[in-house]
Design goal:
globular, 8 helices, mainly alpha, 230 residues
Length: 230
């Protein structure tokens, strides 16, 4: 049953990548399509200074450098909390997937062959900001849920991690550096990447456990503590 479930998850990830690829082909066929143009014109027509400032701040926060710093701090925090196996499995899963994700990102850009709506001569599809944010914070949500923290900590952390995922796509469209379909493609590839990361993480945890390389377990014990309180 577990093997079938994992197979289903891999197929889901593959399907998302397939839709991502089909979208790139459609964009190449109609780079300045009516859907993208209509949505972009409506967003730009809002012309609200407060939204401009918020979108710029969101774009800065979801840039590569801040995300790398937060990612390092997160893994270090997990290791310092005593969850060494989880930290190691996270690092291995991230190292394995970074090149394939970047490769799919670049391949989508070459297939779509579309520049930014601002006219900047850079590949627009998919939105790199959006993709990186979804992968990092989406995977972070999974890690928080696996840590087995008390609900008073889990819910705020999940909400905090979900916020950049929700805001980054609209922000990239609002500042005029990406078309709406660039963002859609990033969400598709990002979701597939998170699924792959989770599956690789669980595989790595089992591999470490079989070799007794670390003493802790990825899955927190649900058994009641045998230590009596005083």
């Amino acid at each position: 049953m577990e093997r079938w479930t994992r197979s289903r998850e891999w197929w889901l990830a593959a399907a998302l990548v397939g839709v991502y690829g089909v979208l790139a082909i459609l964009i190449r066929a109609a780079p300045d399509n009516i859907v993208d143009r209509t949505v972009l014109d409506w967003v730009w027509s809002l012309d609200l200074p407060i939204l401009d400032g918020a979108a710029e701040r969101i774009s800065w926060f979801t840039d590569l450098r801040p995300r790398l710093v937060l990612g390092f701090v997160g893994v270090l925090g997990i290791a310092l909390s005593g969850r060494h196996r989880l930290a190691a499995a996270t690092a291995v899963a991230a190292a394995i997937t970074v090149i394939p994700i970047d490769g799919l990102d670049l391949a989508g850009g070459f297939v779509a062959d579309r520049i930014r709506p601002s006219g900047a001569p850079f590949l627009a599809y998919p939105s790199g900001h959006t993709l990186g944010t979804i992968v990092q914070y989406g995977f972070g949500i999974y890690l928080v849920l696996r840590l087995g923290l008390h609900r008073r900590f889990t819910l705020p952390l999940v909400a905090l991690l979900a916020l950049p995922i929700v805001l980054v796509g609209p922000a990239r469209v609002f500042v005029g550096v990406h078309w709406p379909t660039d963002v859609l493609g990033a969400y598709l590839l990002g979701a597939a990447s998170v699924i792959a990361l989770v599956l690789l993480l669980e595989t790595g945890d089992k591999w470490f456990a079989q070799r007794s390389l670390f003493g802790d377990s990825l899955r927190p014990s649900l058994a009641p503590s045998t230590t009596s309180s005083r």
